[in-house]
Amino acid sequence: MRGKTTRRTIWSLGILVLVAMLMVFMVGCGEEEPPATTAAPATTATTAGGTDTTAPPATETTAAPSTDTTAAPADQPVSGGVLRLIHNAGPQSVGWWSSMGPTDEGAIFPGVERTMKFAPGRKLVPCLAKTVTEDPDALTITFELEEGVLFHDGTELTAEVAKWNYDIGAANGKLQFADSIKEFEITGPYSYVLHLNYWHNQLLQAVGWVPMLSQAAYEANGGENGGMEWCSENLVGTGPFLLKEFNRDQSLVWEKNPNYWGGEVYLDGIEVQIIPDNTTASAMMQAGQADIWQSADAQGQKEMQDMGYTLQEGWAGFQYHLMPNTMDETGPMADQRVREAVEYALDKEAIHAAIGYGRGFPLYAVSPPGEWGGEAIAVKRTYDLEKAKALLADAGYADGCPITILAVAETGGRSTGAEAVKGYLDEAGFITTLDIADAGRFYGSVFGTGWDDLALMFSGNDVVYLMSCAAWWGPTPKTNLASFKRPDDFVALFEPALNARTEEEQIAKTEDIVRYMNEHALMIPLWQSPATLVIQDYVHCDYPMEAGFVGWSWEKTWMGEH
């Protein structure tokens, strides 16, 4: 079948409210990584850094029947077993992309796949697509899907179904850079061409990361009259595991997909329990009641490591900041002098030493050292109490500056980070009130309704930091920070950055963005926390080394004898 869909069709579905939670993105498929290239010819697809994204065809097999875990050589995968994972927060929506935040998307890695993924070496490669051809000069991106990919309901992934997924994401504001798509042309049952209004170097990862969900399931369960609500509670994807149970804020139960298109799946299933309390989670690991603890804080990680448990981490991490409310022009944080006073008031080295437990390091730029822009620091604002007081007085707050810090509640309803920050700010002349919120209110404020003065919140580093800039700080973010105002001269830095074609140019333009944020104190960086799993020694998985936050190849995860 052949047809065309215009942008008018793509934007015809109305706008939903985005409810976002924690950090982690996208999906992995487990193919061999392709050789790297440095150009963007019409026969290959490239992203920042130039990577060939034409992958070998997937081997279509039927997963072996579930068996008990059996002994095998230590480096050889073993089939069988149900892996038990504990996390401190769970998804609110599991099958309707437009209403998902980062926590939701990360939680459904076992069941959802996208047309492209990130592979080891930070390379963007096809996943549900067999080939992807990016032609910047012709303003086209051509996708050829794998044939025979079945959703969990037995229906097939086709170009028509792919179009429906783009329609939903674009219409509801979820698809980043949706305005780049001038026309969606279906050229065959399993192929389509995106005709573009413009091209830039972050476009491929945006249009390639659209999750593929079953259109038939949506239509069979109400369509426009209830399908969205049904999908929020049920997941019908293409991934290696089927979601059998979803109990919000309590648990998820996954079973192996017997018709998985992408090869053998080792585990029989996955059981996820939502355990907010660190003490309980640690006790479960020690009692052998869990195999992976995904959300241990720095103290929990250190304690588990001291007991001999494995800490598995990769290059990605969370960068924690005090995020000023610059949207409110009448508030204190609209004044750069006040924002600078906040940063000078903080002894980041001492704070991290007290609450970091040797994990991570203090930050003086939004990008961590070693990443693009990580050394682009115009002014390194180290602890200087007298300078902080002088800046506050100069800004008109010699008698004190009342502020509120919004922070998410930890175990016991506290926020150790916010408490540490408050002590230093009060000494400098701020009058600080802590607003400790549950996860729902906190992330609803950060991504939805906004916050008063400061929010203790994180960002994350993607495969290259230019991608992170576009996703978090740019004028077309993946998930918008509600109280972050982007000055016009700051926004102007993004067009040359996104249109740079060589890696050297992209790095230089990323440095311009990071340097501006530092010079103008748009964010107050605090510390870096590495993405870390606490795992039992018999667990074998590639997260988070494979693709940072943006992928977990669950089909390749397995457990040895235990």
Q: How many strands appear in the DSSP assignment?
A: 20
Q: How far apart lie the N and C ends?
A: 52 Å
Q: What name does CATH use for the topology of the largest domain?
A: Dipeptide-binding Protein, domain 3
Largest sheet data: 11 strands, mixed
Average predicted confidence as pLDDT: 88
The total tally of domains equals 2
**Uncertain spans, ≥5 residues at pLDDT below 50?**
1-72
Number of helices: 17
The CATH class of the largest domain? Alpha Beta
Shape: globular
Strand content: 15-25%
- In the CATH hierarchy, the architecture of the largest domain is Roll
Q: Helicity, in percent?
A: 25-40%
Structural class from helices and strands?
alpha+beta
The CATH homologous superfamily name of the largest domain equals Dipeptide-binding Protein, Domain 3
Backbone CA Rg: 23 Å
Key phrases:
Dipeptide-binding Protein, domain 1; 562 residues; 11-stranded mixed β-sheet; alpha+beta; Dipeptide-binding Protein, domain 3; 2 domains
Structural commentary:
The protein has 562 residues and is of the alpha+beta class. The chain has 2 domains: 3-59 and 97-236, Dipeptide-binding Protein, Domain 1 (Dipeptide-binding Protein, domain 1, Alpha-Beta Complex); 315-530, Dipeptide-binding Protein, Domain 3 (Dipeptide-binding Protein, domain 3, Roll). It has 17 helices and 20 strands. The chain has helices at residues 7-10, 102-107, 159-171, 203-208, 215-220, 227-233, 278-286, 298-306, 336-345, 348-355, 385-394, 416-428, 439-449, 465-473, 488-491, 494-499, 503-519; strands spanning 3-6, 82-87, 116-119, 123-126, 129-135, 140-145, 181-188, 191-196, 241-247, 251-256, 269-274, 292-293, 310-324, 361-362, 401-408, 430-437, 454-460, 524-535, 539-540, 558-559. The strands form 4 sheets. Strands 2, 9, 10, 11, 12, 13, 14, 15, 16, 17 and 18 form an 11-stranded mixed sheet that branches. Strand 5 and strand 6 form a beta hairpin. The radius of gyration is 23 Å and the shape is globular. Mean pLDDT is 88; it is low at 1-72.
